[in-house]
Design a protein that fits this description.
This protein is an alpha/beta fold. The protein has two domains: 118 residues, no CATH class; 126 residues, Hexapeptide repeat proteins (UDP N-Acetylglucosamine Acyltransferase, domain 1, 3 Solenoid), CATH 2.160.10. Helix content is 25%, strand content 16%. It is built from six helices and 18 strands. It has a seven-stranded mixed sheet with strand order 1-4-7-12-15-17-18. A five-stranded parallel sheet has the order 2-5-8-13-16, with no helix packed on it. The longest helix has 18 residues. The radius of gyration is 21 Å and the shape is globular.
């Protein structure tokens, strides 16, 4: 039998002066997010300009003919009102629920693509601040790595101690519920909508659920309307086409085989 040993993450901290700056940045960001008098679109464009350029943006210069059109385009795109995201085009998008979330979604995605977004520790804390303003529910100790994507956000809920790794797609055009202590590995995909096999514009949405302590491993795919039970696992490159019972492993794409009661 393989000899597995505990390997918890190391505790890492920046220099004290940087830690104070990071703490204040996140505190002020959350305070401003909670201030109804502040327009979130303007908050996002200012925050992004600060993060990318280290200086407040002169957004009126979008009309400045001395700037190149590419520079003016960059200034314009810091403002979420001047951008579009894929879910906005979906017919089942609920504007009343989506658009209050869109500025925060844009801030998350643009943060990930900034130099600051490569900072793992700060990134976890930053996304933890934003998550409750995007998703239907977020439990304690939520951790997300870079480049996670979702559809609307308002149909997606997370339990406690969930870890979502890099380049994960969670499609919540339907509804997706993710339990507590769940790990979703890099490049996994979780869907809640499907298309008619003949009429591609005909879309069905369903509930897709991931149970407590489940593990969705590297490059796995969970199809719409399926479920992964408590303490269950989807093996690397596995495709879930039907419900996986508790304590089972989905391991073989060719035969659809599952190992039962394999996770004590």
């Amino acid at each position: 039998m393989p000899n597995y040993v505990p390997m918890p993450f190391r505790e890492l901290k920046p220099l004290p002066e940087a830690e104070r700056v990071f703490d204040r940045f996140l505190l002020e960001l959350e305070e401003r997010l909670n201030n109804d008098a502040i327009d979130r679109n303007e908050l996002v464009r200012t925050t992004l300009c600060d993060l990318y350029f280290g200086t407040p943006g002169e957004f009126e210069r979008i009309n400045d003919d001395s700037l190149s059109f590419s520079a003016r385009t960059m200034l314009a795109c810091f403002d979420p009102r001047n951008t579009t995201l894929e879910p906005e085009y979906y017919a089942n998008c609920d504007p009343a629920r989506y658009y209050p979330r869109k500025p925060i979604t844009w801030l998350w995605q643009m943060f990930d693509r900034s130099p600051v977004g490569l900072h793992a520790g700060l990134g976890h804390r930053f996304r933890r601040v934003l998550a409750p303003y995007i998703f239907e529910r977020v439990g304690a100790n939520f951790k997300s790595w870079q480049f996670v994507e979702w559809s609307f956000g308002y149909n997606l809920s997370f339990g406690d101690n969930v870890v979502v790794h890099k380049n994960v797609l969670i499609d919540d055009r339907g509804k997706v519920t993710i339990g507590s202590d769940v790990s979703i590995s890099d490049f996994a995909n979780i869907y809640s909508h499907s298309h008619d096999i003949v009429e591609i514009d005909s879309v069905r949405t369903d509930l897709t659920s991931i149970g407590d302590r489940a593990r969705i491993t590297y490059h796995a795919t969970v199809l719409s309307g399926t479920s992964v039970g408590d303490d269950a696992m989807v093996g690397s490159f596995g495709v879930v086409t039907k419900a996986i019972p508790d304590f089972n492993i989905r391991e073989d794409n060719l035969t659809g085989r599952m190992r039962g009661d394999a996770l004590p």
